[in-house]
Every structure is written in structure tokens, then in C-alpha cells.
Design goal:
The protein is α+β, with helices and mostly antiparallel strands and 298 residues long. It has helices spanning 2-14, 19-29, 37-47, 56-80, 88-100, 104-111, 115-127, 145-155, 166-179, 191-206, 263-266, 269-278, and strands at residues 129-131, 137-139, 164-165, 210-213, 217-228, 231-244, 248-262, 285-287, 293-295. It has a five-stranded mixed sheet. Strands 1-2 form a two-stranded antiparallel sheet. The longest helix is centred in the first third of the chain and has 25 residues, at 56-80. It is globular, with a radius of gyration of 22 Å. It starts with a helix and ends with a strand.
């Protein structure tokens, strides 16, 4: 297998790999990804795209659903003139989900703690709160400076972020190849040349796959146009039904995977036209021999 794997990797860094070659690379690296979660994730999409119920996309999707529902219910409560944030369990779940949507480096910069420590401090802060008879939250005892900072951060923010980007995926894939001695450090220079192909391949694998979110709901992922700095980039989005007290039922689209690939550059003909006009599609897509995305049902 390793000899075949070396052949597929050699084609990749030369820019000659097919979609099938990249499929095989990811599948071969799933069990030896060295903590590169995006590599494992794409391998899992290739292996069983019908239902993602674990992994980074699953975790980020559920954290975003939790934060979106909490924020929308809070806004609805304030508009109705009723007590907000009166459920300590919801506050805790929301706070932990929000912390999950930040990296350790971001949390260290913003509140001086890594994610594990921040969750422990948040738990401690919430244990010192109580819901009064008027439905409002009060302190049973004073919070420490760290508890107050973490608690305030955890209930006053909203964040929507992709599970990973094309840059994340490309860097992690090449790091994984290096750790498995499949490329040398000199070969890292080839990443910019193939990052577009890596991104398009990921989009093809994730489009029309499904992720399971809260209440056992299965949500499909779709290719979508994302507008960034005046450019129309290819991305993968999920549209979640968000419902709860005071908000009825809404549908919210959030990014799951984003790229720097421009629609007109990486999509052929009818697919490019469709994405520019409708922003998304539920038709199946594939990568052609030249590495461009196109409809597979034509």
C-alpha cells in the first residue's frame, strides 16, 4: 500500500493527481493523521458521507446550532420585555459551545485561558449564580476576576465559523504527508500550486453529504457561493432549521468549509452560471479530469 500511496502523493505534488488519487490518499491517512483533524474529516466524508455524526464538522455544526438558538431566544425575550438568560443550563451549554468555536490561541488572547481551563472557570462561575423569583439571574456569591471575565465573554458573543478552511486543509494535509515521510520539507513549496485542487476535491466530497445535529436532525451540506472582499468564492454551507420559544421557526445558513477558490475559476459552464445566479444547488457535482467542478447529472 505504501508504494501505491507514494505514487499517488507524487502525482499530487506534481499537479497530476486525479480525484481518485486524492480519495486514496485521504483514506490511507485516516488512521495516521497525527492529529490533523481536517485530514481525518475529509477521509471520513469519503468513507461515509451519508451521515456525519462525529468529527469536526459534526462538533462545529452542533455548537453553532446551540449558540444560534440561544441568541435568537435571548433577542426574542428582550423584544417581548421578559427576563432573558433565565435558564442556567442553557447558559452553560451556550457558553461551552461558544468556547468550542474559538481556538486555544484566541481564548488565551481574549480571556487569558485555554479552552479546557475556560470551561472549568465557566462551570465555577455558573455554580455561583441563581435564578430569582422574577426570572432574572443573580449572584449567590461574588465571582472571581477570571470567572467574571469568562462568564461575560461566554454570554455576550456570537460566532459563526467554518469547521475548517481550504488553507487549514492544505496545511494539515501536507503536514500529515511530511510526518508520514511521504514528502520532504522541500516538497512543501508545492502546496500553493495544488491548494485549489485540494479545495475543489473537498467541496465535491462534502456537497450533498449530511451532518446530524441536535434533536437527531439530519442536515444536508451544499456547495454555495460566498462573497468575500468582492470575490465570489466556493464554499460549503449548511442550512439549519432554528426554532424555540419566542422565535418560531427560522432557517439559518452557516459556513462549514470556506476556500479562496473563485467560482469562475474552478467551476465549469452550467455549474458556474448556476452558482452565480442562485448561489447554491442541490444537483450532484463531480471533478473532471482537468480538476474543475461540474454537474455530474448532465
Amino acid at each position: 500500500m505504501d508504494e501505491n500511496l507514494k505514487l499517488w502523493v507524487s502525482r499530487l505534488i506534481k499537479g497530476d493527481a486525479s480525484a481518485r488519487d486524492l480519495d486514496r490518499i485521504y483514506l490511507s491517512l485516516r488512521a495516521r493523521s497525527y492529529g490533523n483533524k481536517a485530514v481525518t474529516e475529509i477521509g471520513d466524508f469519503i468513507a461515509h458521507a451519508d451521515q456525519r455524526d462525529r468529527g469536526e464538522v459534526f462538533s462545529v455544526s452542533n455548537d453553532m446550532v446551540t449558540t444560534l438558538v440561544y441568541n435568537m431566544q435571548s433577542i426574542a425575550a428582550r423584544e417581548a420585555g421578559i427576563a432573558d438568560c433565565a435558564d442556567l443550563e442553557k447558559i452553560k451549554n451556550y457558553g461551552k459551545s461558544l468556547l468550542n468555536l474559538h481556538s486555544d490561541a484566541e481564548l488565551k488572547r481574549l480571556i487569558g485561558l485555554n479552552r479546557k481551563s475556560a470551561k472549568e472557570v465557566l462551570e465555577s462561575a455558573i455554580s455561583k449564580l441563581i435564578v430569582g423569583g422574577d426570572g432574572k439571574v443573580y449572584y449567590k456569591e461574588m465571582l472571581t476576576r477570571s470567572e467574571k471575565l469568562t462568564y461575560d465573554f461566554s454570554i455576550s458573543k456570537i460566532r459563526v465559523k467554518p469547521a475548517f478552511t481550504s488553507n487549514d486543509l492544505g496545511n494539515q494535509l501536507f503536514s500529515c504527508l511530511l510526518k508520514n515521510s511521504l514528502i520532504s520539507k522541500v516538497d512543501l513549496k508545492f502546496l500553493p500550486d495544488v491548494i485549489g485542487f485540494i479545495a475543489s476535491h473537498a467541496v465535491e466530497k462534502m456537497h450533498l453529504s449530511k451532518v446530524r445535529v441536535k434533536d437527531n436532525l439530519s442536515v444536508p451540506l451544499f456547495i454555495q457561493t460566498e462573497y468575500n472582499d468582492g470575490k465570489s468564492n466556493v464554499a460549503i454551507y449548511a442550512t439549519f432549521p432554528v426554532e424555540g420559544d419566542g422565535i418560531g421557526e427560522l432557517r439559518v445558513s452557516v459556513p462549514i468549509f470556506t476556500s479562496n477558490s473563485i467560482v469562475g475559476d474552478v467551476c465549469s459552464g452550467e455549474l458556474a452560471e448556476t452558482l452565480m445566479r442562485d448561489h447554491t444547488t442541490n444537483r450532484s457535482i463531480e471533478l473532471d479530469a482537468s480538476g474543475k467542478l461540474l454537474f455530474s447529472d448532465t
